[in-house]
Amino acid sequence: MTQFSSNIAALQPSATIAVSSRVKQLIAEGRDVLNLCAGEPDFNTPSIIAEAGVKAIREGQTRYTPAPGIPVLRAAIARDIERFAASGARFDPRGVVVSAGVKQALFNVLFSLFGPGDSVLIPKPYWTSYPELVQLARAEPVIVDGDPENDYKVDPARLEAAAGPSTRAILLNSPCNPTGATYTLEELRAIAEWARERDVWIISDEIYRRIYFKGAIAPGIFDLPAELTEKAILLDGTSKAFAMTGWRIGFSYTSPEVAEKLSALQSQTTSNASTPAQYAALAAYEAGAEVDQAVEQMRAAFQSRRDLVLDLFATRLPGVSVLEPDGAFYFWVSGERFARPGEGSVQFCERLLNEYGVGVVPGIAFGDDRYFRMSFAYSEDTLRDAVNRLEKAL
């Protein structure tokens, strides 16, 4: 038997990718299956962005770049953060490190700042990769139950109850995957004040920030005054808002001092993100009104789909509890009415897939075995069909 390193002894594969792969396999075999698992927009990348990537290839922009990204892209990202930050602060391009997706950006941060003996607070439900990445840094993930009366969000009281001498950071995700819950600016301020008193880092994953249904853009950590964000790290990227999941461009923003260490780590692991993809991302952040219009069209479509499914749940599945998302493109659905006695989320989701042809992600992947995640990044016809099948499953 192969002896593996203790570095990966407890590592589990991504549950969302595993379920989505299983569904795609069934579809390839000819099964009538609706895939509501994927965490990606169903829209094409806006043409102005895609054409910039093609143009970069044709012009020979296919060689190595500096590890943290091409300077013009780092500057464009800094300006974009500045454009949306309600604080009015200035943002230094040297604080930007461009990575192969937000997952790599988060790994860079966790691996560079934390290690054995450190712990990171993670609100539950959480994106499935958070605990795994903390453990890869050989730190301890400490799960903090969100408040069911407040869309499963956490507050300083819950954080304080879970914190201890080893607490070094809190990992926030707003809008949240899988719930769609979004922290208000006042809630972020309260958490930031608690973090400052505790002298812990705030790592804020805001990849869904522009897919928000209560305004143009969701509140973010850098909307707060600078004195509350000295130990804040922003994670974001092009995947969701610009429909660029396969291009693999994410970034972190923090102080130039920390960014230098993140860049050094990345230079020894993957080096730079894909060069043509960086030029496509440059168009995403620099094209202005044309890209903003495309983003708004996608956001409006997601909101329309969200409202449709909420109406369908209310009329066709009135006994099923579902959280109304403020952002992202997921429903966090109670499995209570679907589960048979003794079934956990894996079992009843398998049954929904095998018997009714509906592929959703078991809630245990996000820390709560009572729920499942259902994406609404699909056509309205597909979503109507899915609700019909869920009604039959009851």
Features:
394 residues; single chain; alpha/beta; Aspartate Aminotransferase, domain 2
CATH fold type of the largest domain: Aspartate Aminotransferase, domain 2
Q: What spatial form do the alpha-carbon principal axes imply?
A: globular
The residue ranges in which pLDDT falls below 50 over 5 or more consecutive positions are none
Q: Give the amount of beta strand, in percent.
A: 5-15%
The class by helix and strand makeup works out as alpha/beta
Distance between the termini: 45 Å
Helix content: 40-55%
Largest beta sheet: what is the strand line-up?
2-8-7-6-5-3-4
Query: For the residues shown, what is the average pLDDT?
Result: 96
CATH architecture of the largest domain: 3-Layer(aba) Sandwich
What is the CATH class of the largest domain?
Answer: Alpha Beta
**Quaternary:** single chain
- Number of domain units: 2
Per DSSP, the total helix count is 12
Based on CA atoms alone, the radius of gyration comes out at: 21 Å
Polypeptide structure, described:
The chain is α/β, with parallel strands linked by helices and 394 residues long. The protein folds into 2 domains: 6-44 and 291-393, Aspartate Aminotransferase, domain 1, CATH 3.90.1150.10; 63-286, Aspartate Aminotransferase, domain 2 (3-Layer(aba) Sandwich). It has 12 helices and 13 strands. The protein has helices at residues 15-28, 47-58, 71-84, 102-113, 129-136, 156-162, 185-198, 256-269, 275-286, 289-316, 345-356, 380-393; strands at residues 34-35, 96-99, 119-124, 140-145, 167-173, 201-205, 232-237, 250-253, 322-323, 330-334, 358-359, 361-362, 371-375. It has a 7-stranded mixed beta sheet, with helices on both faces. Helix 5 links the parallel strand 3 and strand 4. The model has no long low-confidence stretch (mean pLDDT 96).
